[in-house]
Specification:
The chain is mainly α. It has one domain. Helices cover 60% and strands 0% of the residues. It contains five helices and no strands. Helix 1 packs across helix 3 and helix 1 crosses helix 4. The longest helix has 17 residues. The model has no long low-confidence stretch (mean pLDDT 94).
Length: 89
């Protein structure tokens, strides 16, 4: 792992989280609040849309909120959603 998570990895982690858990009732509030902050990184990570500085702000905020929701205090550099899930358990 690196010191902090790259923007590309943040987008991929958020996209994976959205695809995997979007119907999980325990995350309903998180998904409602991040109604743009989750599908946007998915669209960027699969190449449907290009990233912009404004989109990057959404990704950064949503990733920080995901860390908070998982009880992770510091971004120590994550490569995949599984890294966050391991720390959450």
């Amino acid at each position: 792992m690196t010191d902090t998570t790259s923007l590309e990895n943040k987008a991929e982690i958020l996209a994976d989280f959205w695809n995997t858990y979007k119907y999980d009732a325990q995350f309903t509030d998180f998904f409602q609040y991040n109604d743009l902050g989750l599908p946007l990184p998915y669209a960027i990570s699969v190449g449907m849309v290009a990233s912009t500085p404004h989109a990057e702000m959404f990704i950064e905020e949503t990733f920080d909120l995901l860390l908070e929701a998982f009880g992770i205090e510091k971004d120590t550099g994550f490569d995949a959603l599984e890294d966050l899930i391991i720390l959450r358990q």
